[in-house]
Amino acid sequence: MNPVADVLISKEKIAARIQEIGAQINKDYAGKELTVVCVLKGSFIFMADLVRALNVPLTCEFISVSSYGNEKTSSGEVKLVLDISKPLDGKHVLIVEDIVDSGLTLKFIRDLLGVRNPASIACCALLEKPEALKTQVSVEYTGFKIGNEFVVGYGLDYAQKYRELPYIGLMKA
Ligand code: IMP
After folding, report:
1. Whose CA is nearest to atom 16 of ligand 1?
2. What is the pLDDT of residues 24-36, one digit of tens each?
3. Active site residues per annotation
């Protein structure tokens, strides 16, 4: 057990849920090819597990935006730090997010990629905090809905730490 975080969602539960979401995505995109966009840094572990649960042909892209400093609340301002490397014309795009909190990051990315002429665009988020939502944004695939609490692990950080924890944890007081 890690001294900093109590388990909120175990690695077994995460793995089982990813298989379920993967099966749904495989069904929804059968016969199509996906461009899967990983939102760095928080989604890198989720992305790695999710793409291995998919059996449709796919390519992986990476995007990085900044909105959080080292703090636990969003600045509300989202900036593009690293863009994807390929055009999206005619592509079926799946954005992979670690967590939708205020929703501002996802809205920014959906708007940014949505104008690049993709055939379709959807989002898969491991976690959603419905009480924290500040904007209308669609999330087509959700792993788990959680309360308005700060979580770490499985890619998610606090001040760039704890991403390596294999579970979603709540910081100990
Ligand atoms: P949003 O723009 O407020 O939806 O925030 C999205 C980003 O904030 C996520 O991609 C995370 O990187 C970060 N974030 C939001 N909530 C948490 C949390 O509880 N733990 C760690 N990072 C978080």
Report:
1. 101
2. 999 999 999 999 9
3. 101
